[in-house]
Design a protein that fits this description.
Number of domains: 1
Order of helices and strands: EHEEEHEHEEHEHEH
CATH superfamily: NAD(P)-binding Rossmann-like Domain
Structural class: alpha/beta
CATH architecture: 3-Layer(aba) Sandwich
Strand content: 15-25%
Radius of gyration: 16 Å
Largest sheet: 7 strands, parallel
CATH topology: Rossmann fold
CATH class: Alpha Beta
Helix content: 40-55%
Distance between the termini: 17 Å
Number of strands: 9
């Protein structure tokens, strides 16, 4: 039995991961850290409302005894300056990761990144550089396992909606196209269910790579 920490549970990916964790027989507890209440109840679910994601020192005593962290918090880079995007994508992630590492280096730390992330940190795309730096620095920290999830197109399942209006517009009017792409190229599109299952399996089974592209997510979800 495992106990996991989850961030970004109100978002599309995070909610998909949450649903899978709550229903998995070998997950005994899910601690959601968020800035707002989820508005749901479940015997396995615990919540901490935490407003300042740049520091977790004041809740550190509540983060002990966990086997994994699924960091699904994220934001679209559209309309943001690099400093703003970096604060949410890099600073928030590293603040929690470093706190958890000091408590339990045997944890598995999973970070939701994206296809096209720039591991060189030198490309033109701002979001890709920032995600690349986040991935690189997480992998250097020293957790027992760290996995960088790079989904591309994602099909939300179980009634999940995207909080990003642009993405939800695409899902509302062009889901047929996304599903057609998946039918033609099954390994290029993942579902929220597959991401959740792959996250869980990474804790129990590990994986041969620390950076997971869509095909890897699908393979791991079926392990």
């Amino acid at each position: 039995m495992k106990k996991v920490i989850l961030t970004g549970a109100t978002g599309m990916v995070g909610k998909g991961v949450l649903f899978e964790c709550l229903e998995h027989d070998s997950i005994e507890e899910v601690l959601v850290i968020g800035r707002n209440e989820l508005g749901m109840n479940h015997p396995k679910l615990k919540e901490i409302i935490h407003k300042d994601f740049t520091s977790f020192e004041n809740i550190k005593d509540k983060l002990t005894g966990y086997d994994a962290c699924f960091f699904c918090l994220g934001i679209s880079a559209a309309g943001l300056k690099e400093e703003q995007y970096k604060k949410i994508t890099y600073d928030f992630t590293m603040a929690l990761a470093k706190t958890l590492l000091s408590l339990n280096s045997d944890m598995t730390f999973n970070f939701v990144s994206g296809v096209g992330t720039d591991s060189t940190e030198k490309g033109r795309a701002m979001w890709a550089r920032v995600k690349g730096k986040t991935e690189n620095d997480l992998l250097k920290l020293g957790f027992k396992n760290s996995f960088m999830f790079r989904p591309g197109a994602i099909i939300p399942e179980r009634g999940i909606k995207s909080r990003t209006k642009m993405y939800q517009f695409i899902y509302d009017y062009f889901m047929w196209l996304v599903k057609l792409i998946k039918a033609i190229s099954p390994d290029s599109v993942v579902t929220t269910t597959q991401i959740g299952q792959a996250m869980i399996n990474s804790v129990f089974e590990g994986y041969t790579k620390d950076i997971l592209e869509p095909v890897d997510i699908i393979v791991l979800s079926e392990t």
